[in-house]
Amino acid sequence: MRVAICDDDECEIEQFSKLITEYQLSRGVSLTCRFFSNSIDFLCDVKAGEYDLVLLDVVMPGISGIKAAQELRGKDKNVKIIFVSSSPEFAVESYRVDAYHYLLKPVDEDTLFPLLDRVGKELSVQEERGLVLKNREGVVRLSFAEIEFVEVLNKKVLFHLAGGAVREVTAALADLEGELLTRQEFIKTHRSYIVNMGCVQAVGAHCAVTKSGQSIPVSRQRHNQVQGAYEEFLGRGSSLVPMADGQAVEAPERQERSDGLWKILLVDDEAVDRTSWADILRNHGCMVQLAGNGEEAVKLAAEETYDCILLDVVIPGEDGFLICRKLRELTHAPVIFLSNITEPDRQVEGFLAGGIDYITKDTSAELFWAKVETRIRLAMSDRTQLRYGPLLLDLTGRKVLVDGEELFLTPIEFDLLWQFSEHPEHVFTPEEIFSMVWGSQPWDGGKLVQTHMSRLRRKLEKAWAGHHFIEAVWGQGYRFAPVSGPAADARK
């Protein structure tokens, strides 16, 4: 279930966050949930079909919840809207926008959980729904799940089904787009094609390849949109990862808890930061427990089992480094520091305290999640090192050794080398590298990337003069080149 919650009261937002976490734990389900502190941000963000359920505070500065719902209805007629208010006086007005329910504050599990249960059941029934169409044989019903792709051929609309059957219907594609494209699994790849991403195994430069082997054209104008939508769809549960050459490989099996969800403890005294980080984690299917200080974090760690702990350095009471030492006595979960502190000696202090990574608060959402996910996977596996000939990456100690001798890298250089070595066939463009490391900053034309990549390459070449571990690909970017064959023994 995809949920959005809009409330201008930080305390209410935090209460909703706790309730959503408790609901997931009690029901063993995973929700994606985003929080907004005002109606304007919510309306600017929302797209048709993006959310299944929206909880709107009625009284908010600027645009009220009622007006926000009216605008939302113009974009999405199917989303379920629940209004939340301290007073019943707006209840009648709320149902003019087809409200699903009206909740009085304070909201608790007794009032919210039954509603979430009911919405979940209704959505599961809707998943079984489909299209009712006319063809030569009469009226046919097609479930959404069985539709592989839709094609317009010689002014005919053809529905290609997952089992191989084809249904020709008497309708125009324009008449069907509205119902299909409001569903998250369908996307238009070409003016004559709509494809079900659940049936796709790869997206290449010019086509999408379905699991049955069909090639669906992707127009040049739509390629970036299709690629982005497919990657987002994969992040919601598919196990296939698209490659640049149009092939697809099976993604590593997710190492999950016995209850199927990763549970993360997020420790930060800033409500805005807590909400921002928690949104990212929940959007990737994690359950998030929040703590505002170190004392609360230690208490929770003693009572609960977590897959990862995200710990702000500057918090009330004892700082994050001291709290980290206490946490290491209670849990084996990886501890990742969150902070705006960038001084190398302070980061070293964090590693000595038992932290295994350091994420600055200007880190992009993509890089933030990549680091958290990688650290959880590493903690759940036996892999602690990566070796490529003379090059050894110690992932636990965050050290690099070349032929047994330590090569001193900055945290950014280590992360770049690690990322490159994990994807040896991938050519990283300067824009891609910039987004991974400095995603929240405006693009500088590639100067930062060139500076850091030049320093990293010089250090590697000086440590092992017989081989270039990172190659510059003319006109494209950089890629990792592992040592193989005679080069492994050709040290100068």
CATH architecture label name of the largest domain: 3-Layer(aba) Sandwich
Total domain count: 4
Shape, please?
globular
Over all CA atoms, what is the radius of gyration? 25 Å
Q: What can be said about the biggest beta sheet?
A: 5 strands, parallel
Helix content: 25-40%
- For the secondary structure, the number of strands is 28
Detail the poorly predicted runs. 237-260, 485-492
The name of the CATH topology of the largest domain is: Rossmann fold
Structural class: alpha/beta
The CATH class of the largest domain: Alpha Beta
For the termini, the CA-CA separation is 58 Å
Average pLDDT value?
80
Count of individual helical segments: 15
CATH homologous superfamily caption of the largest domain:
Response regulator
Strand content: 25-35%
Instruction: Give the strand order of the largest sheet, numbering strands 1, 2, ... along the chain.
Output: 2-1-3-4-5
What features would you highlight for this structure?
28 strands, alpha/beta, 492 residues, five-stranded antiparallel sheet, OB fold (Dihydrolipoamide Acetyltransferase, E2P), Rossmann fold, disordered C terminus, 4 domains
Provide a descriptive summary of the structure in words.
The protein is α/β, with parallel strands linked by helices and 492 residues long. It has 4 domains: 2-125, Rossmann fold, CATH 3.40.50; 130-242, OB fold (Dihydrolipoamide Acetyltransferase, E2P); 263-379, Response regulator (Rossmann fold), CATH 3.40.50.2300; 384-489, Orthogonal Bundle (Arc Repressor Mutant, subunit A), CATH 1.10.10.10. The chain is built from 15 helices and 28 strands. Helix 2 (39-45) packs parallel to helix 3 (65-75) and helix 9 (294-303) packs parallel to helix 10. The chain is globular and about 75 Å long. The N and C termini lie far apart (58 Å).
